[in-house]
Design a protein that fits this description.
Layout: H1 3-8, H2 17-20, H3 28-35, E1 40-44, H4 51-62, E2 68-72, H5 80-92, H6 95-100, H7 112-122, E3 130-135, H8 143-155, E4 160-166, H9 175-180, E5 183-187, H10 188-191, H11 195-204, H12 211-221, H13 225-235, H14 241-247, H15 253-262, H16 269-278, E6 284-285, H17 286-293, H18 298-307, E7 312-314, E8 321-324, H19 326-339, H20 344-357, H21 361-370, H22 374-390, H23 394-402, H24 413-426, H25 429-441, H26 451-469, H27 472-483, H28 499-516, H29 520-537, H30 540-554, H31 559-576, H32 582-597, H33 601-614, H34 621-637, H35 641-655, H36 663-678, H37 682-691, H38 694-697, H39 700-712, H40 716-727, H41 736-752, H42 756-770, H43 777-781, H44 785-791, H45 798-807, H46 810-815, H47 839-842, H48 861-867, H49 876-883, H50 887-901, H51 906-915
Parallel strand pairs: 1-4, 1-5, 2-3, 3-4
Antiparallel strand pairs: 6-8, 7-8
Length: about 950
């Protein structure tokens, strides 16, 4: 190493001092600990941890220069006499010591024990506190000198404080002081720089990094002072400091040279070989180290290295497993590649075998891949893939799959099954089916002793593909095989120890498939069985998945029960770190959809966002279809008809990925038709209903869409006829929310043709059904505020009515400016359909304004322009866009129009304007 480089890479405990002095990094927390410490302080940390700099800056910051005796022990100090002379000289340099400590000169017969007694006698009269700081105590290799120092520490006066800085713990009998409360210990974890301190250190060197890059650098160095200082030296003045910081590691030249010189080269050859050969491991224990180096004694070496502070850290309480500091590990791997590159494949193979033998499957696969032994890696992963998935380690499994060479795939049937599973969750169903076909075609190549396991894996994959494709018959067939008793003729040969795992998985898959086909009772029964079995066998991942799907199944009969199960599933997932796993996405989806029905939209949206992140609609089209439906309902609840249609059309595309017509698609189509009605596209809706088969048209949801269409076309009698089978229960619907909407539309229709008693009864039925689960979405979708206000005077649901009215904005209550089911009156008028009031308004041709009827006050030109848009389905913001004015301006003009025309809502204003001849009559009434 050149002198220049040696100067740059000197120990951060000394050479780094000038670079960060001046108050840039003031570690006040550590200063306080030093100032308030017990009589003896041990500062023990590896090289480059900043021990020396901390002590020197503490002395400088506290103005303690004349009260501190500083002794630096030279390398491998073996001479007690020289050591004690330096101690005496340092004490004499303090203000108090200068008066008390006698000078000492070197003499052949000078005894260290006598020196200690002399110092104790001299300091007996000490009244002012002084600190004896001994730096690099680990270099004091004379056992006699250490015992003498221990004596001084034990018998020293109360005002003589000791600070012992060392790279490793030395034998000084300090355990007695610890028991007596006279020992303060500051170790490597205490000396690590925080992210803020690291930023200050770098900025002192003129280096400013983005927070993300700084966080990465801080993580790589683990706050190691020398590493940060060397990083600052590398980054200062560099044209691309962000790239250098992101790539900074222990193999960087200055870091590697520092660690080689200060740590590795100081070790005996046996220790160096252990460190190098085990550097390819993330963690190491004694037996594994012994296998890799071909000799015993590894555990003792590792424990001694950890105790000596050479960047070896115990990771368990028994100190049997260890890891290396990231930058130290980088340096060791770099040195191994440089010095013995040909040994790497063999070392990885040995490690893979040891890990496999001792049940560490993930590590075994990784090292088999590193050795490029693809067959071994595929066999190991195949043996443990199911366990990884069922343990919720799907991310780890995906990482291992990504580690295979592309050339290894075509020739290995077992690897093809693994890739099929990966594609099924994070790729595409088409790719999964291709891999499954490849595995089936190559099944003859699977060894006989592995054939049973292979066949079980194929059965699971076929079940999963069928479930995602919506192929219920195949799901039932494959699930029944997995659920069959072990002695049944068609039962698959279950993998040893995995029988109940597979039964639970089959129950979850079967219940999920039944759920998507709205066989909710069967689904709930199978999913409850899966929850109970998963709990019994200790599989929380399967329990969370079963609970998530069970929550959705329960939502068809009780929102409260579904919320409880969803919450339980998401909490279980949160505890285990599985919140982004596809299997629990349904819990967030179920809860989000319920919140839409309850009009708790601020809660619904993030839940649906979470569900969308966790599942991939392309490989879970049934779940994706339901998610799009919920998104569409959310848009409808906010009055965004166009967004709702976009969501429903996305659901249609996903429905095309299913092998059979999905019941959820029918619900989505019914929602879509109602959105089109609200946009005034009644002709499209008529055609769509006409194109349906008779069985489809008879579904309750389609009858509700038809009723909305008939009300929009001012035919309340046809609306009630369409709703009758829903009201009497003969036309099935998916859940209670649809029945609520049916009775609500019936109430509006009855009110429209002048039967307030029937209207009140129907509305009360709707409220009866809505109250238990708080289903208020239908009342916002087709709001009847006038009916609700009348009903509030004689109902058991006054609080619910108040909640609904509070949800409706003033604009909604004045005329649904967010769009309507009908163009003017009808359902969009909020008060139901209004019958003709005069031939002059509703006759075959427009005859001009009614005689004797005039506005209270003439409309301004701006108000007239706004009035012309009120018969349309444009919302206030959309009208503002048409007129190039603000939304507030439009709403102000609308309010003035209502006042001048004597109307209370948008539909009433339109009707009044037509009566006054300010607007042409409704085209569809001509």
């Amino acid at each position: 190493m050149s002198p220049a480089v040696r100067t740059q890479t000197a120990d951060a405990e000394s050479a780094a001092v000038p670079a960060v002095m001046g108050g840039i990094v003031v570690r006040r927390g550590l200063f306080a600990r030093l100032g308030e410490a017990a009589r003896v302080t041990r500062l023990s940390a590896p090289a480059g941890s900043g021990k020396t700099f901390l002590l020197r800056s503490w002395i400088s910051e506290g103005g303690l220069a004349d009260r501190v005796a500083w002794v630096s022990v030279p390398g491998r100090e073996r001479d007690p006499q020289r050591f004690w002379i330096s101690v005496a000289d340092a004490l004499r340099d303090t203000a108090a010591g200068a008066r008390l400590v006698r000078a000492v000169t070197a003499e052949p017969d000078l005894d260290g024990w006598a020196m200690v007694e002399r110092l104790l006698a001299d300091l007996g009269a000490l009244r002012d506190r002084i600190w004896l700081v001994i730096d690099d105590v680990h270099e004091l290799t004379s056992s006699e000198a250490l015992r003498q120092l221990e004596l001084l520490v034990m018998r020293g006066p109360a005002e003589l404080r000791f600070v012992l800085a060392t790279r490793r713990d030395v034998r000084l009998g300090l355990h007695r002081l610890r028991l007596e409360g006279d020992l303060t210990e500051i170790r490597a974890t205490d000396l690590r720089f925080t992210a803020d301190e690291a930023r200050a250190l770098l900025e002192a060197a003129g280096v400013a990094l983005p927070a993300s890059v700084l966080a990465l650098l801080h993580e790589r160095t683990e706050g190691w002072a020398a590493g940060l200082r060397l990083a600052a030296l590398s980054l200062a003045g560099h044209p691309d400091p962000e790239r250098i910081a992101a790539e900074f590691s222990g193999s960087e030249r200055t870091v590697a040279e520092y660690l080689l010189a200060e740590v590795l080269e100081r070790q005996p050859e046996e220790v160096r070989q252990l460190l190098l050969r085990t550097s390819l491991l993330d963690q190491v224990n004694g037996p594994l180290a012994d296998v890799l180096r071909g000799r015993s004694g590894g555990e003792q070496i590792l424990q001694e290295l950890e105790q000596a502070g050479t960047f070896v850290v115990a990771v368990d309480a028994r100190r049997s497993w260890f890891r290396y500091h990231p930058m130290f590990a980088d340096m060791l791997r770099f040195e191994l590649r440089r010095s013995a590159p040909g040994e790497l494949p063999a070392l990885h193979s040995i490690a893979a075998g040891w890990y496999a033998e001792h049940g560490h499957a993930v590590e075994a696969v990784r090292h088999a891949q590193a050795a490029q032994d693809w067959s071994l890696a595929a066999r190991l992963l195949s043996d443990h893939m199911l366990g990884l998935v069922l343990d919720g380690q799907g991310a780890t499994a995906r990482e291992l799959l990504a580690g295979f060479s592309a050339s290894a795939v075509p020739a290995d049937a077992e690897l093809a099954t693994l890739l099929a599973g990966h594609e099924m969750t994070h790729g595409s169903l088409e790719a999964a089916e291709r891999q499954l076909a490849l595995a089936t075609g190559e099944s003859a190549s699977v060894p006989a002793d592995r054939r049973d396991r292979f066949e079980v894996v194929l059965a699971i994959l076929r079940l999963s593909v069928a479930s995602r494709r919506g192929d219920l018959p195949v799901v039932v067939e494959q699930a029944q095989r997995l659920l069959a008793p072990a002695n049944a003729a068609d039962a698959p040969p279950l993998v040893q120890g995995a029988g109940e795992d597979l039964r639970t998985l089959a129950l979850v898959s079967l219940g999920a498939a039944e759920l998507w086909f709205l066989r909710t009772e069967e689904a709930e029964r199978h999913l409850e069985q899966a929850v109970a079995l998963a709990r019994r066998i200790g599989r929380p991942f399967l329990e969370a998945g079963a609970l998530a799907h069970s929550a959705w199944a329960a939502s068809f009969r009780s929102f409260a029960l579904a919320v409880g199960r969803s919450t339980h599933a998401t909490e279980l997932a949160r505890r285990h770190g599985w919140t982004e796993e596809p299997i629990v996405a349904v819990a967030y989806l179920a809860l989000g959809a319920i919140r839409v029905w309850q009009m708790r939209l601020e809660e619904a949206e993030p839940l649906l966002d979470h569900a969308e992140r966790a599942l991939r609609a392309e490989v879970q089209p049934a779940a994706g279809l339901v998610l799009c439906q919920a998104r569409g309902m959310l848009a409808l609840a906010r009055g965004h008809q166009t967004d709702a249609l976009a969501a429903f059309r996305a659901a249609e595309r996903l429905a095309g990925l299913l092998v059979a017509e999905h019941p959820a698609a029918m619900l989505m189509q019914a929602h879509m038709l109602q959105a089109l009605v609200r946009l005034g596209e009644t002709g499209l809706v008529e055609q769509a209903l006409a194109d349906l088969g008779e069985e489809q048209r008879e579904r309750g949801e389609m009858r509700i869409a038809m009723a909305a269409l008939r009300l929009a076309k001012d035919d309340p009698w046809a609306a009630t006829a369409a709703l009758a089978p829903v009201s009497d229960g003969s036309a099935a619907v998916a859940n209670r929310g649809w029945v609520v909407q049916a009775f609500l539309l019936e109430a509006i229709a009855c009110d429209a043709f002048g039967d307030p008693t029937a209207a009140g009864q129907a509305l009360e039925h709707a409220l009866d059904l809505a109250e238990p689960d708080g289903v208020v979405f239908p009342f916002v979708l087709t709001p009847p505020p006038e009916l609700l206000k009348r009903q509030a005077r004689h109902t058991a649901h006054a609080a619910l009515i108040s909640e609904i009215l509070n949800l409706l904005s003033p604009q909604d209550q004045e005329g649904l400016d967010q769009g309507s089911l009908g163009g003017q009156a009808g359902l969009g008028g909020l008060g139901g359909w209004h019958p003709p009031r005069s031939e002059g308004v509703w006759g075959g041709s427009w005859v001009g304004p009614s005689e004797g009827i005039q506005p209270k006050e003439p409309l301004t030109d701006s108000e007239t322009r706004v009035l012309r848009y009120l018969p349309t389905n444009l919302s206030a913001p959309e009208i503002a866009g048409q007129l190039s004015v603000s939304v507030n301006t439009v709403r102000t003009h609308m309010r003035h129009v209502y006042e001048k025309l004597g109307a209370h809502r948008r539909a009433g204003a339109v009707e009044r304007a037509r009566a006054l001849g300010l607007l042409a009559p409704s085209p569809h009434r001509a």
